[in-house]
Amino acid sequence: MKAALIELVRIPSVCDEGDGGYPFGEAIDRALRKTLQIAGELGFRTHYGDQGYYGYAEIGEGREMLGILGHLDVVPPGKLEDWDRGPFEPVEIDGMLYGRGTQDDKGPICAALFAVKALADAGVKFNKRVRFVFGTDEETLWRCINRYKEKEEVPDMGFSPDAKFPLIFAEKGLLQLHLEGCNESGLRMAGGSAFNAVPDMMVYGGERQDDLAKELDALAFAYTRTAEGIEVHGKAAHAMEAEIGINAIARLCLALHAIGVESKAVRFVAQEIGEDSFATRIFGECADEPSGRLKFNVGKIDLGGVEQISIDSRIPVTVSKDEVIAKLSTTAARYGLEYKEFDWLAPIYLPLDHFMIKTLMQVYREVSGDTVSQPIALGGATYARAIDNCVAFGALFPDELLTEHQPNERAALGNLYRAMEIYAHAVYELTR
User: Do 111 and 204 fall into the same domain?
Assistant: First the structure.
């Protein structure tokens, strides 16, 4: 399993649409083909789907199908100097395997794949077909899994090894959007790498850099001066936990606004958001009991002929999307910015007495020995939303450090091996 994971992490499978004639780029296609090759060598029946939109690997017989849904694309590495070693040069140190994708999601999908191989080697008869669905566009627009559902048989039940143990019973609504307006200020700048990543740096190369530096000092915001301009420092984090990061775009906007630099986008971010990853000024205390607070991340900004802010918001499962859009649109309009939806994933919310939750919780507790941890709600979006009777299940343990989407992403190999055992027992029970 470790050797297979190392092979996959070496492939820089960041979305690059159309590169090499492939839907999401040559590197992602290479990762998909390598995964199918590995699965085929393990004895799975494999299928390369629709010019590389997706692939699957299947084992067992039966009318019903258990799906295990994971993805092979990864987010960009960000600033390479923030990594202690190359993001696509996996290395093992003190039981940790470093590299982009080790936690999200190549490590977990390898653990599940080899868990099913272990069952087959042990002579287990699968009473259902077990199908791994490999997505290639999860970090952007989910075109892969949507194409799969158009073209292929949809599993009757399943899990996605792309979150935390013990399991996720609710996932917030995921709204990605642009706020756009005509650039009447003449200010030019761009930064951020993805909707769903808190930006850890933002460069300003415009006028009044000395004034900006003084204001950053006054605000105690970290920065450096480079040949390109002033580089404001932040701290990377996943948008589902934006509050643990430091948003470099927000910090730059606060400082620019304070020294009188005019821009619709700068003014909106500075006055309405600032460093509040809950956007309380716009939405108030927006939360519910099952899934917690609304999260709001300014992931990218681009001030060209059009000013554009790219935002990722995680909406509590019982809160109306339309209500959120109405409040945001009204606020943005005051700054001359227009709401434009980019993507929407509806929330999921399974009752705790659902058969998938009861079965997987029992397996997790028996194998791990953890009888304390309870099912959790998550701000992240997993393929569990793609099919019915599906939840996110591992592979991160409750006490494990989340490093996905961050520099020095890493997986504790011992925990991946523990997860492999849990997945083996889970697949056994779900195929009885």
Answer: no
Q: Which residue has the tokens 């998938």?
A: 356
In which domain, by residue range, is 229 found? 173-345
Count of other CB atoms within 10 angstroms of residue 353 = 7
Single residue among 345, 374, 406 that ends a domain in this structure: 345
Contact assessment for residue 341 and residue 295, using Cβ atoms and an 8 Å cutoff: no
CB within 8 Å of 393: residues ≥ 6 apart: 159, 160, 161, 163, 165, 167, 168, 360, 364, 423, 426
Q: For residues 397 and 249, state if they share a domain.
A: no
Looking at the structure, tell me whether residues 133 and 224 fall in a common domain.
Answer: no
Which of helix, strand or coil describes residue 322?
helix
73 is catalytic: yes
| Domain CATH code at residue 210 | 3.30.70.360
- Alpha-carbon distance 422 to 395, whole Å? 9
Quote the CA–CA distance of 8 and 110 in Å, as a whole number.
9
Count: domains in the chain: 2
**Along the 432 residues of the chain, how does pLDDT read in single tens digits?**
999 999 999 999 999 999 999 999 999 999 999 999 999 999 999 999 999 999 999 999 999 999 999 999 999 998 899 999 999 999 999 999 999 999 999 999 999 999 999 999 999 999 999 999 999 999 988 999 999 999 999 999 999 999 999 999 999 999 999 999 999 999 999 999 999 999 999 999 999 999 999 999 999 999 999 999 999 999 999 899 999 999 999 999 999 999 999 899 999 999 999 999 999 999 999 999 889 999 999 999 999 999 999 999 999 999 999 999 999 999 999 999 999 999 998 899 898 999 999 999 999 999 999 999 999 988 878 999 999 999 999 999 999 999 998 999 999 999 999 999 999 999 999 999
Q: Are residues 137 and 148 in the same domain?
A: yes
Could you say which of 29, 58, 73, 137 is catalytic?
73
- Cα-based distances in Å from 15 to 20, 33, 173, 199: 12, 15, 23, 18
Among the listed residues 104, 138, 171, 180, the single catalytic one is: 138
Domain boundary among 311, 345, 379: 345
